[in-house]
## 1
Amino acid sequence: MKSITEEAKIENIAVITDFVNSILEANGCSAKVQMEIDIAIDEIFGNIAYYAYTPKTGEATVQVEIKNFPERLELTFIDKGIPYNPLENKDPDVTLDIEKRKIGGLGIFLVKEMMDEVSYEYADGKNILKLKKNL
């Protein structure tokens, strides 16, 4: 397992993405999987940056592990911000016209659709969001 810890700021999304992509590329992951992972990083790390420590800032750790190579990627986001389980929110109704939809929730919905498993736990004062993707 490899990990990176950065201050939870929007400008660090690129740092996290580059770190994860270097691991994906070294393991021969497809461009499609890499794009889906990039979208997930943008959404999850972005939400941590915007909401976890408001109005202050703090750190977030991203762990990357490829198990049973090349079978499964596990991407874990860990922060010590405000406890928040994004999986508790109701999925948006994507059948409605865009003008009739409520704001919010589409990003985590996309992450759940693109990943094979998404789980959340709050343990030891930390938000832990795990994404699993079959490769």
## 2
Amino acid sequence: MTIKRILIIDDDADIREATQICLEITGEWDVLTASSGSEGLIKAAAEKPDAILLDIMMPGMDGLTTFQNLQDNPETQNIPIILLTAKAQSAEQRQFTRLKVAAVITKPYDPFSLSDQVAEALVEKL
């Protein structure tokens, strides 16, 4: 299995670190991180990861705005995006399913199954 690169965009340092460790240990991912939407846009364009894990609720540029910017950029528009969200209400879930995202993973997530959830979401994309 080849090493895959994933970019985590999340403003919470603890979540970034825990997610990175889970993906590196259980899924053999090469993990990049960004602490804001704007930093994530720059890293995504520069590094061209195989996938992006994107938090929805962030200060400044939120996840949906970041997602739209990624979609609008020809350099990043084909990178599969998985949304990480604490918003589990059915109205929000419907909104997310209308977006062209690979999957929506609800926080808090099980760190031991996260890598499998990501792999499953990307099975046709990678």
## 3
Amino acid sequence: MTILVRDVREHELDSVLALNNTAGPSILALDAPALHRLWSIADYFRVAEVDGLLAGFLIAMDRSADYDSPNFRWFRERYDAFLYVDRIVVATTRRGAGVGRVFYADVQSYAEVRVPMLTSEVFLDEGSDAALLFHGTFGYGEVGQQVMEGPGRRVSLLAKTLCSYEWVRETYGDELPDVPWLAGRRRPAGGASRATGT
């Protein structure tokens, strides 16, 4: 099985929305306008494709994003620079096949040349041990907890320091080499455009 990770295309947003809203209680539901808003502000919005079919997606944004999630705000109030993983969804038919691990390796590769930290959260509901273990095996640790406004659910707020960030900054400063794998996301027309990093 080959897993291809690439930037999402606008015509795929309906399929992404369907994946999101059938993911189960660990992912908050979205409507189409909310997903389009995420599409316009995300620094990282990629899908995984297996055998020509969407197998999942991951959305992340840096601290300068115009985003009002209470968990995102919690991190922004405490940290100067980070990439926040807002949501990762893997299709039920592909869970356990490594898609999530491929996403987390890819988002780390994206982030470590731009910011010193990756952040995320996990709902602390019954059955959250698998998600906490998954994040822990990638080096995330809990930096706080809060009860989310709205849904009233307790979350574990997680962060991971990206060790290579300092070396990249000392070696290249703000001028990364002009190579395709370092290119940032091409924003949709009218989408926010901002520099990442410190």
